[in-house]
Amino acid sequence: WDASVLHLAAIVGKDDILRLVLDFVPDHLIAVQNSLGNTPLHVAAMGKRSRAVALLIRRMRDLPKVEDKNRILRMKNTRGNTALHEAVLNGNVNGTRHLLNEDLETVYWMNKTHTSPLYLAIQSEEPEIHKLLFSLRLEPSRIQGLPPIHGAILDNRFDVLGPKWAQTYHDQLSPNRPRNVHADLVPNLELLIPDLAAMILKENMELFAMTDSRGGNVFHLAAYLYRTKAFQFLEPRTEHLARQWDMNGDPPIHIASKMGYVELIEKLLPVSPHSNLQGQNLLHIAAKYGRASAVRYMLRHPILRKEIHLADHAGNTPLHLAAMYSQPAALIPLVLDEGIGSKYMNHECLTAFDIALDRFRREPTLRKRLTLMVLSSSTIGKSQDLNGTFLLVRPEARDEAFSIFASRKKKLNRDHVKDMINTRLLVATLVATVTFAAGFAVPGGFSGSGMATMLDKRLFQAFAICNTVAMFCSMLVVINLIYAQQNDVEVAIAANRNSVLPLSVALPAMSIAFLTGVTLIVGKLPWLANTIFYLGIVFLLLVSGATLLEYPPLLQTRYRPIRRAIFWLVRTYIHLWGVQTYLLDDSEDDRTTGGISTSGSRDGDGDLGTGDSATAKCGDAPHPPNLAAKILEKNVKLFAMTDSKGGYVFHLAAYMNEPQVFGLLGLGTAYLARQWDKNGDLPIHIASKMGYVDIIQKMSASLALSSKRGQPFFISQRNTGELQQ
User: Fold this and answer.
1) What gap in Å lies between CA 271 and CA 274, rounded to an integer?
2) To 10 degrees, the CA torsion angle through 427, 433, 437, 442?
3) To the nearest whole number, what is the mean pLDDT of the chain?
């Protein structure tokens, strides 16, 4: 151990030896450091040699310059600790007192773990150290590193029964009694045990109100860590802290909502703002972070439930955020609420269903599939095409819609599609093989005439029907997927899609056939037959639910009891497969645009969204024809306005299949039907692209039929099949 004579004298506890050494050593040896960076003062503070600390300080006063004394007192070891750090860390009460009396500067300094002596005092069990440090007239703005009050919250220093406190109060209560400290003190804990957080609040309000590097105060941290006792300090002089935003723009109640702590939400609600700096209320946050219990509580709350349709600064409702961050568990209570509206659009003119569908197309994970399943069951008849308002904001999306399939074909992961096809082909082949064999090895065997012995039993009849259904459905899948082995990607996609429903029927049907067959075999033992049957029903429901997940249209229903069963199935998926429904990071997506684009996103195709080229606001929805007629009557110029792609009202009506709008064709508006957009197309060419025969018939009699490219309108129909001429 490399130590000077002064180090040894400071640690051995022989004050006379230390005094003698101090009288003879030169001044520079007082500040000498060992390999760990410890000066003799560090060593004395660490070893609880308070008398040695006092002697060393006295010797420093004799130095010719005051700066030298302060320099030694403020020297740090390799851990970044000053002598005061070490004294507090090792519970050296008198040493701490001597150092504080000599120099108060180091009380603000942090070490390499970002902790000051004040923060280290929180972890100490010496009551005198608490009194020494927290009774000082401190300047909280000078404290470096972690806020001490946050240490009290982090270490849960509320009613803490430390051995030093317990011994002290035991002696004060009854010095002559046996030392069964906990038995003596537990009945009176609230009177006897000090509360460090309360002590800090009492001594220095500014110290209590300190914030961390992210702007979070004591209530932010307590809400995050679920320290319910910290909210006993929520009183008139501290209520302003409950209304304080951190650097993310969240008050403490939003942190509690983010974590799903209903009890803390109830405590903070009377004194807290309902919205953060992004305009998100508590229901927004709970839905975004997947806190289903908090969402259910808020939907039952008479005040909070009124905020279900409120939008944040990006126009997103709680339903939008739950869809955006793929939170199926939080979506369930939202869509079950009677007052929910699924047609609300954000500033990008997207509904929650649009967002969920886009997220699933980008990355078809189970979590996103479950989210889409929940929303699908509550959006019956919802078209997956672009909504009308979105087409006003982004007219170019009308043209991009025709290139969706082509670009999707380029971006498809061929290996992924091939693996999926091969997996389904293998499963279908196995089902076909097993059911074919079961058809000639029926339960109970055959009679001498070749007929099944159990032919008259209803369970056998159910077995035969289900086995046959499973056999032929699996054969359909096998035949269908044979075409998927070709190099034509379009055929492969179609074959893969068409195989979903037959396979979804074959697997439950085979399960039913097996269950009825086994029940027949053990039918002479009723308890065993009943056990197998009812146990099989449970697993049959699980198998059926798992296959339903592959075919979402089967899950779309208007009936509330069926929807509840579907949502129960979703919760089962979440628990069985460990689907994570919490959010690990606070993305900026919901604060700006939602990260969805129409043209060529890097993650997928057909992604919805708006960009900087938007020329209209969401909400400028298409007007009904009678209102359009009023606009035409009052102001022809307003009727003849174009969008950013040069499209007139008849271009949009042709795209949206609104033939009644063409009833406004007359002498004053006929010229609009002969106007080209920026693509060089007339409205009749748009109708031809979409294959709308009624509109073509209305316009073809008296209008020009060629585009700027010289194409007659029937050349424009590329994707719609043969038009009726």
Assistant:
1) 10
2) 30
3) 78
Query: Do both 515 and 649 map to the same domain?
Result: no
Please state, in angstroms and rounded to a whole number, the distance separating the CA atoms of residues 673 and 662: 9
Tell me which residue of 516, 518, 562, 571 sits closest to 542, measured CA to CA: 571
Task: Decide: 316 and 285 in contact? Cβ < 8 Å.
Answer: no
The answer to whether 359 touches 324, Cβ cutoff 8 Å, is yes
Instruction: Establish if 694 belongs to a structural domain.
Output: yes
- State how far the Cα of 582 lies from the Cα of 330, in Å rounded to an integer: 10
Could you report the per-residue pLDDT of 312-361, keeping only the tens digit for each? 999 999 999 999 999 999 998 998 887 777 678 888 888 888 898 888 88
Is 426 among the domain residues? yes
Lowest mean pLDDT among 21-35, 187-201, 319-333: 187-201
Strand partners for 275? 281
Q: Is the domain of 508 the same as that of 639?
A: no
CB-count exposure of residue 41 (10 Å: 0-12, 13-18, 19+):
buried
Domain hosting residue 452, numbered range: 412-555
Residue where a domain terminates, one of 524, 539, 555: 555
Q: Cα separation of 241 and 153, whole Å? A: 15
Nearest CA among 530, 517, 537, 407 for reference residue 457? 517
CA pair distance 104, 350, nearest whole angstrom? 60
Q: What is the pLDDT of residue 557?
A: 61
Of residues 674 and 531, the one with the higher pLDDT is 531
369 falls within a domain: no
* Residue pair 207/240 in contact by the 8 Å Cβ criterion: no
Is-contact 77 38, C-beta < 8 A?
yes
Q: Which residues pair with 706 in a beta bridge?
A: 712
Same domain? 510 vs 637: no
Q: How far apart are CA 251 and CA 276, in angstroms?
A: 7
pTM value is: 0.71
Give dist(CA 367, CA 379) in Å, integer. Answer: 19
538 and 629 share a domain?
Answer: no
Whether residue 519 contacts residue 529, with contact meaning beta carbons closer than 8 Å, is answered with yes
Task: State the residue for tokens 């969204």.
Answer: 609
530, 555, 580: which is the final residue of a domain?
A: 555
